[in-house]
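Re: the 153-residue chain
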Amino acid sequence: MIGRIVRSADFERVLASASRVRSSHFAVHHLAAMPSVAAKPAKVLSTAAAKLSTANAQVTHGPVDELPPDACWLGAIVPKRHAKRSVTRSLMKRQIRAAFAQQSTLPPGLWVVRLRTPFDRKLFPSAASDALRAAVYAELAQLVGRVLARAKP
């Protein structure tokens, strides 16, 4: 399972490193680290622990959706200057997540895929055409293959 990078601080950390692999439209950045955790205030019970009938039996559980430390987290950056319509940006983000979700052998850490240059609007006039979807997915599949080839010793 691949988690999502949601905090801007994590995106900035990953983008500070050099890109690992590039294609004509995309760049892949990687950082072998875990996502940063937002500082949350500790919960304080309103009643004293001695007054609770289950004071000795309290068990704390971790969040259900917490990923192990050797997991992968993925972020996608599709700037508005390269894909003007939101339909196109959403299509590309879905294709990025789909291309990486099929790979179970990715090295752990934070991964960010960034759209570097726009796709030619003359070749793909429709914002979410099947031709654009296929072109984006084919380029991403090739990119993921190159990432996996570099990851193997």
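Strands lie at 2-4, 19-22, 26-31, 72-77, 109-115.
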